[in-house]
Design goal:
Largest sheet: 4 strands, mixed
Shape: rod-shaped
Number of helices: 3
Distance between the termini: 77 Å
């Protein structure tokens, strides 16, 4: 047999050692799979919790609102409030700026 030792004692030792490593590898795989599932579940919960429309709140100016965004916009700041589709359209029509990245005015059908 190739490079394996010829005596039974060392063969048993090698089998025990390899069995131990296979068990450790299986445990590491199981842990990695559980972590991956947890991350996927966390991402799904975050996606489910994302509102369809939001308005960014502005404390720097006299206007209470800065921009209207779609819910998943990457340009959304830390201060925002979830709003309905009708509220989003109403705010844009009242002069609140529409985000230039996610284009909620186009999504709402306010622009042609």
């Amino acid at each position: 047999m190739y490079d394996l030792p010829p005596d039974l004692d060392r063969l048993h030792t090698l089998r025990t050692w390899h069995t131990m490593w296979v068990q450790r590898i299986n445990e590491a795989i199981k842990k990695a799979e559980e972590e991956q599932k947890a991350e996927e579940l966390k991402a799904q919960r975050k996606a489910d919790a994302t509102p369809d429309w939001v308005v960014e709140l502005d404390r720097a100016t006299s206007s209470p609102y800065a921009d209207v965004h779609t819910g998943g916009c990457h340009m959304l700041g830390k201060r925002w409030q979830a709003i309905s589709r009708e509220q989003a359209a109403q705010l844009i029509n009242q002069g609140v700026a529409a985000c230039t990245h996610c284009r909620p005015d186009t999504e709402l059908g306010l622009l042609e």
